[in-house]
């Protein structure tokens, strides 16, 4: 759970140029037996497919439900191969809007941000684009995540790739927060003196 606020902070970095909020709506702890049935050692593609199918079975069917998720993040300490794995441009698709991430401490937040970037349509910097010069400076989408808490940014290519796809992800348009606060008829201090309040 400690990863989500950091991932949210990474997505609020001004270099991205877009307002994306990462909000935890539900957390499911999977037992060891179920986890080993989902993760195949050395087979990240199959593991991702199984994790995404499982996440879809856990999805709330009502999009207005408070625990309905737009994207599933699966964290594991099992070795499935790379630090993370995700389908490119899978956002909002029931079986592709998910990531598989190896959890090994606080720095895993950068792996989660990187893999979620793939789901949003971002490619690796320097692979099919002209941003290889940014990888050594801590770009989030470097092929090998080198970003660190003191040095990270989204490359100009990541920003462009996100802008190319973001408008097609309708599931991201909903607000996960209910803002139906009760309206107070008057300010609290009007009805209660300082002595009554204390």
Q: What does the model show?
A:
This protein is mainly alpha-helical. Helix content is 31%, strand content 6%. The chain is built from seven helices and three strands, in the order H-H-H-E-E-E-H-H-H-H. The chain has a three-stranded mixed sheet, sandwiched between helices. The chain is globular.
CATH topology: Collagenase (Catalytic Domain)
- The ordered H/E elements are HHHEEEHHHH
Report the top-level CATH class.
Alpha Beta
- In DSSP terms (H or I, runs of 4 or more residues), the helix count works out at 7
Strand order of the largest sheet: 1-3-2
Can you say what the CATH homologous superfamily is?
A: Collagenase (Catalytic Domain)
Number of strands: 3
Category by helix and strand content: mainly alpha
Shape: globular
What is the strand and helix layout of this fold?
Elements: H1 3-11, H2 32-38, H3 44-58, E1 72-76, E2 84-85, E3 98-102, H4 108-119, H5 156-165, H6 188-191, H7 194-197
Parallel strand pairs: 1-3
Antiparallel strand pairs: 2-3
Characteristic key phrases:
7 helices, globular, single chain, 198 residues, Collagenase (Catalytic Domain), 3-stranded mixed beta sheet, 3 strands
Summarize the structure.
The protein has 198 residues and is mainly α.
